[in-house]
UniProtKB/TrEMBL annotation, chain A:
TM ranges: 35-59, 232-253, 273-295, 301-323, 344-366, 422-443
Gene3D superfamilies: MetI-like
Keywords: Cell membrane, Membrane, Transmembrane, Transmembrane helix, Transport
ABC transmembrane type-1 domain sequence ranges: 228-440
Protein name from the UniProt record: Phosphate transport system permease protein PstA
Family: Belongs to the binding-protein-dependent transport system permease family. CysTW subfamily.
PANTHER family: PHOSPHATE TRANSPORT SYSTEM PERMEASE PROTEIN PSTA, PHOSPHATE TRANSPORT SYSTEM PERMEASE PROTEIN PSTA-RELATED
PROSITE patterns in the record: ABC_TM1
Annotated compartments: Cell inner membrane; Cell membrane
KW ATP-binding (keyword) present: no
Pfam hit, one: BPD_transp_1
Keyword Transport in annotation: yes
Membrane protein topology class: Multi-pass membrane protein
Automatic annotation (TrEMBL), chain B:
Gene from which this protein is expressed: pstB
Gene Ontology MF terms in the entry: ATP binding
Name this protein carries in UniProt: Phosphate import ATP-binding protein PstB
SMART domains, per the entry: AAA (SM00382)
Keyword hit for Nucleotide-binding: yes
Gene3D superfamilies: P-loop containing nucleotide triphosphate hydrolases
Entry-linked InterPro entries: AAA+_ATPase, ABC_transporter-like_ATP-bd, ABC_transporter-like_CS, P-loop_NTPase, PstB-like
PROSITE patterns: ABC_TRANSPORTER_1, ABC_TRANSPORTER_2
Highest taxon above the source species: Bacteria
Length: 451, 253
């Protein structure tokens, strides 16, 4: 009993109409409206950044998927390519790419003359700057594959040099060539003439997606295919190591381990490991896998192991979270009819936790796929793999790069043509990450409780 | 006089520093429904969970005293709780069917305990259990439909059928009707009465009417103590302890 109630009847409540909004309500509504506005503003800013990011990536990277070619009728002179005339393949192979250069020079000079333009260059070497320096090797490969065509005139679609390609894409102008030793404005006049004659064309560049990286002077030949394969092998290693170890560790910690100081310590450490900068894992991998265990440098196997270390905490944390989210009633039900702990976990808890585990794993994999820093330290950056690895073992053991490392490498190079390729590589990397996320979503839907 | 199925002597349960069960001794008879009643937090569920060692799953829980099933100490070091729980089945407060088909829900227990030699055997066990669970007629045409798609009352009867599929000797029920409506409750109560033929049933309930309806013996718990234990009729008509009287007349609890 309080004094107030003893004092008699309480004061009557001030009557008010619900049709008029009182001050307190107005304030509350205003606060809510402000909060909504903040939210909308935040989302709008986020969307603007996203649009800017995506459009600039697409705008800058799209060029990498198109490449300029110059079509030339190359006269495969027998006198130059097969002096003996016996079509002996060993003799043909002895002719180096230098031996093919004069053929290109001739073909180019003829094409220019046919197009009705004046050739201001006296030296074939200068004229040939329009064509990729890799073109001779392409012709040589073709001749070795088809020695019977020696003596004939064959039409080749040769890669234009990166400056010509840049001119056709608008990156290179006559002004910008003023201080460029690689090409002169006179070349561009010839390109214009050849283009009018229909010999210079732009077409889809499959080699960018499937090809290997090229040297610094031949950006027009560089492709991301081999490093894509390097990434693929690394992901195989990560999947094979991180998934079983991570899931087993989390099941043990979550379902079987006793709760004591030691397991608490492990838990704290796992949470902290997830926040450790990836470069730390890189230097750990360098010390342990390469310097101590003497695994080969720059190998996808080592890269995969390092990324496994990095991915494990992510997988363990998400797996434990999804194990925790399985309702206790299911555990009790299983134990109540006499299932053992292990039967409870593997028959009932794990299937229900599966979507969460798979999502966590794929997100961990996607994180690993985009990781560059640890690869710096184990030598997967800057290595130029010029060929596809030969078979499975070499795929894991032979030096290779990875997609993000390849992109970093290209972005680092001086030639602006590589800049374009770096953006193109980012488009491919993003496509991979997007498809992995879509797979994660599909798997989650697929394995979600179907009732 | 019927056989004694479970004997508990001087049972003490501690959750960390909390003394949840204080020196409880009780004899549970075979082929009898024994009801545990008492206000919330009095320890009746805790005591029930001691009887099939479900408290083992709680790290901070400590059980002392002597509980014997057919004269064998269930807390003996040699006892595997998994084997014990196959003999002492349990039905929980909330219906908790596995997110599997009705058939698999029932078949799971027999499968892990190796009770069926072949598919036909298993089919028979499933049918028998569902019939004893008084749910066969409702689900016989959709045995492969998910168990979670049934109504609450059906789910609970499915859980009871699941518990008896492993042929337990004792069935522990922790407030099996608290999530059910009166009609479903009546069905489950009828079922409990039938189960008495084959099992010793121990039921925890908040409803005194339910205890009066289904049980032959009643134990009244209060603040961790077993206050009174005896024939249900006598407890409800002529309680000896004033606390029991207060509770059943609605003055405490």
């Amino acid at each position: 009993m309080t004094d107030a109630s003893l004092a008699g009847t309480p004061e009557p409540r001030a009557t008010s109409s619900i049709l008029t909004v009182d001050d307190r309500t107005r304030k509350r509504n205003a606060a809510e409206a402000r909060f909504r506005a903040y939210g909308i503003a935040a989302i709008a800013v986020g969307l603007v950044f996203l649009v800017v990011l995506v459009s600039s990536i697409l705008f800058k990277g799209a060029g990498a998927f198109q490449q300029s070619f110059i079509t030339l009728n190359v006269d495969l002179q027998e006198a130059k390519l097969d002096k003996s005339g016996t079509r002996d393949i060993e003799a043909i192979k002895k002719v180096t790419t230098f031996g093919y250069n004069p053929l290109i020079d001739d073909a180019l000079a003829r094409a220019i003359a046919d197009a009705g333009a004046e050739n201001p260059f006296t030296k074939g070497k200068d004229l040939r700057k329009m064509i990729s320096s890799g073109a001779a090797a392409d012709i040589r490969d073709h001749v070795i594959a088809h020695p019977e065509q020696i003596g004939e005139t064959v039409a080749f679609k040769l890669l234009a040099s990166s400056r010509v390609d840049g001119y056709l894409k608008g990156r290179v102008t006559r002004d910008s060539l003023a201080r460029d030793k690689n090409l002169t404005p006179a070349h561009l006049d010839l390109v214009d003439a050849l283009q009018t004659a229909g010999l210079v064309t732009k077409s889809f560049n499959l080699d960018f997606i499937t090809g290997a990286d090229a040297s610094e002077s031949r950006p027009e030949q560089a492709g991301i295919g081999v490093s894509m394969l390097g990434s693929f092998y690394m992901m195989l290693v990560v999947l094979a190591c991180a998934l079983p170890i991570g899931v087993a560790a989390s099941i043990y910690l979550e379902e079987f381990a006793p709760q004591n100081r030691f397991t608490d310590l492990i838990e704290v450490n796992i949470a902290n490991l997830a926040a450790v900068p990836s470069i730390v894992f890189g230097i750990l991998g360098l010390a342990v896998f390469i310097q101590f265990a003497h695994l080969p440098q720059s190998a996808p196997l080592v890269g995969g192991l390092v990324l496994t270390l990095m991915t494990l905490p992510t997988i363990i944390i998400s797996t434990r979270a999804s194990l925790k989210s399985v309702p206790p009633s299911i555990r009790e039900a299983a134990l109540g009819i006499g299932a053992s702990n292990m039967q409870m976990v593997f028959h009932h808890v794990l299937p229900l936790a599966m979507p969460g585990i798979l999502t966590g794993t794929i997100i961990g994999l996607a994180q690993a796929l985009g990781e560059t820093a640890p690869l710096l330290l184990i030598g997967m950056v800057g290595y130029i793999a010029s060929n596809y690895p030969d078979g499975l073992i070499e795929g894991f053991m032979a030096p290779n790069s990875a997609m993000p490392a390849q992109i970093y490498e290209w972005a680092k190079r001086a030639d602006p043509a590589y800049y374009e390729r770096a953006w193109g590589g980012i488009i491919i990397l993003l496509l991979f990450l997007m498809s992995m996320n879509i797979i994660a979503i599909i798997l989650r839907r697929r394995f979600e409780r179907r009732w | 006089m019927q056989d004694i199925k479970i004997t508990a002597k001087n049972v003490q349960v501690h959750y960390g520093d909390t003394h949840a069960i204080k020196d409880v001794s009780v004899d549970i008879q075979d082929n009898t429904v024994t009801a545990f009643i008492g206000p919330s937090g009095c320890g009746k569920s805790t005591f029930l969970r001691c009887l099939n060692r479900m408290n083992d799953t709680i790290d901070i829980c400590r059980v002392d005293g002597d509980i014997r099933l057919d004269g064998e100490d269930i807390y003996d070091k040699r006892v595997d709780p998994v084997q014990l729980r196959a003999k002492v089945g349990m039905v929980f407060q909330k219906p908790n069917p596995f997110p599997k088909s009705i058939y698999d829900n029932i078949a799971y227990g027999p499968r892990i305990h190796g009770l069926a030699r072949n598919k036909a055997d298993l089919d028979e066990i499933v049918e028998k259990s569902l019939r004893r669970g008084a749910i066969w007629d409702e689900v016989k045409d959709r045995l492969h439909a998910p168990g979670t798609g049934l109504s609450g009352g059906q789910q609970q009867r499915l859980c009871i059928a699941r518990a008896i599929a492993t042929e337990p000797e004792v069935l522990l029920m922790d407030e099996p009707c608290s999530a059910l409506d009166p009609i479903a409750t009546a069905q489950v109560e009828e079922l409990i009465d039938e189960l008495r033929q084959n099992f010793s049933v121990v039921i925890v309930t908040h409803s005194m009417q339910q205890a009066a309806r289904v049980s032959q013996k009643t134990a009244f718990f209060h603040l961790g103590n077993l206050v009174e234990y005896g024939e249900t009729d006598r407890i409800f008509t002529n309680p000896t302890d004033p606390r029991t009287e207060s509770y059943i007349t609605g003055r405490i609890g």
